[in-house]
Design brief:
This protein has one domain: Phosphatase 2c, domain 1 (4-Layer Sandwich). Helix 2 (71-87) runs antiparallel to helix 3 (96-115), helix 4 (161-170) runs antiparallel to helix 5 (176-182) and helix 7 (228-235) packs antiparallel against helix 8. The chain has 276 residues and is an alpha+beta fold. Strand 4 (121-130) and strand 5 form a beta hairpin. The strands form 2 sheets. Strands 2, 3, 4, 5, 8 and 9 form a 6-stranded antiparallel sheet that branches. A 5-stranded antiparallel sheet has the order 1-11-10-6-7. 37% of the residues lie in helices and 24% in strands.
C-alpha cells in the first residue's frame, strides 16, 4: 500500500513538472497591471484587450471595435487574438516595428475576410515594453500616454480628420483656415478592416523608460469622459495599485453626464519589469 502511494506521488510529480515546463514557454500574465472596462451607454461592449508577457517582454493590445450589432465586438476580439498569438512565438523581438507592421497587415486581410460585405473594423493599439524601452503602434484612435513625474504625456496622435488636417497644413497642402475648420473633427479616417487601409501610426524612436513610469492605453469611452487632469490625479496616487487606479478611472467615466457615452477601456501598465 505504501509503495503504491509513493509510486502515485511520483507520477503526479512528473506530470506536474511537465506542465510547469510547458507553461514556462507560454505566455504569462502580470497580475500587477491594471485593466478596466465600461460599456458607457451602449448595449454591447465592443472593446477588447489583453496583456502578454514572455521572455521577449510585455505586449499590451487594445482594440475598439467598429460596426453595428456584434460586428465591432468580433473585429476587436480578432485583433487582440491575432497579436497575442503572433507574439507568443517570440522569445526575443529585435525589430518590434516589423512585428507591428507584419501582424497589423495580416490582421487587416483576415478581418476583411471575416467582414465580407459588412461595414466594420477596429482601432488597434499596441504597446511593447522590453529592456528599458517602450515601443508602440496604433491604427485608428487609441490613446497611448506615459505618466512620468506626475505628468501624463501623450504619445499617440490618432488617425482622425483633425490630425490629418494638421499634418496637411504642416506640409503646405491646405490653408490655415481649412485646418482650423477641421481641428475638432474626430472622425476616424483610417482603421484596420477599412477598404483602403494603408498605414498606421508607429513610434520611429523607442521611448527610454525611467523608474516608476506608467503607461496608459485608453479607448474613446475613457479619454472623452475623463480629462487628463482627472487622470493624472488618479494615476499619481502612490497609495493605489495599478488595478485600483484603473477601477477609479472607470468609475470617473461612468459618472460623466454625457448622454451618448462610448465603450471605455483602460490599461495601466507597470514598466519596472522592462527595466533590465
Amino acid at each position: 500500500m505504501i509503495l503504491q502511494i509513493i509510486i502515485f506521488l511520483l507520477i503526479i510529480s512528473i506530470i506536474a513538472r511537465g506542465i510547469f515546463q510547458i507553461l514556462g514557454d507560454k505566455v504569462t500574465y502580470d497580475a500587477s497591471d491594471g485593466i478596466g472596462q465600461t460599456t458607457g451607454n451602449k448595449e454591447i461592449q465592443a472593446d477588447a484587450m489583453d496583456i502578454s508577457i514572455t521572455t521577449a517582454g510585455k505586449l499590451a493590445v487594445m482594440a475598439d471595435g467598429i460596426g453595428k450589432e456584434n460586428t465591432g465586438k468580433v473585429c476587436a476580439a480578432l485583433a487582440v487574438r491575432e497579436f497575442t498569438e503572433a507574439f507568443s512565438f517570440y522569445k526575443t523581438l529585435q525589430k518590434p516595428e516589423y512585428f507591428f507592421e507584419r501582424t497589423m497587415y495580416s490582421l487587416h486581410m483576415n478581418m476583411q475576410k471575416v467582414l465580407e460585405e459588412r461595414h466594420g473594423g477596429a482601432s488597434v493599439g499596441i504597446v511593447f515594453l522590453t529592456e528599458g524601452k517602450l515601443y508602440y503602434a496604433m491604427a485608428g484612435l487609441i490613446r497611448i500616454a506615459l505618466l512620468r513625474n506626475g505628468e501624463l504625456i501623450p504619445l499617440s496622435e490618432g488617425q482622425t480628420v483633425g490630425v490629418l488636417a494638421q499634418r496637411a497644413y504642416q506640409d503646405g497642402k491646405i490653408s490655415r483656415q481649412k485646418t482650423i475648420w477641421s481641428l475638432e473633427d474626430s472622425e476616424i479616417w483610417n482603421y484596420v478592416g477599412k477598404d483602403g487601409f494603408h498605414q498606421m501610426e508607429i513610434c520611429e524612436v523607442p521611448v527610454a523608460l525611467k523608474k516608476d513610469d506608467l503607461v496608459v492605453m485608453m479607448t474613446k469611452g475613457i479619454f472623452e469622459e475623463v480629462s487628463y487632469a482627472e487622470l493624472e490625479k488618479i494615476l499619481v496616487n502612490p497609495a493605489l495599485t495599478a488595478q485600483e487606479k484603473a477601477d477609479r478611472v472607470i468609475r470617473q467615466a461612468e459618472i460623466s453626464e454625457t448622454q451618448d457615452k462610448e465603450n471605455g477601456s483602460i490599461m495601466v501598465l507597470l514598466t519596472d519589469g522592462a527595466m533590465r
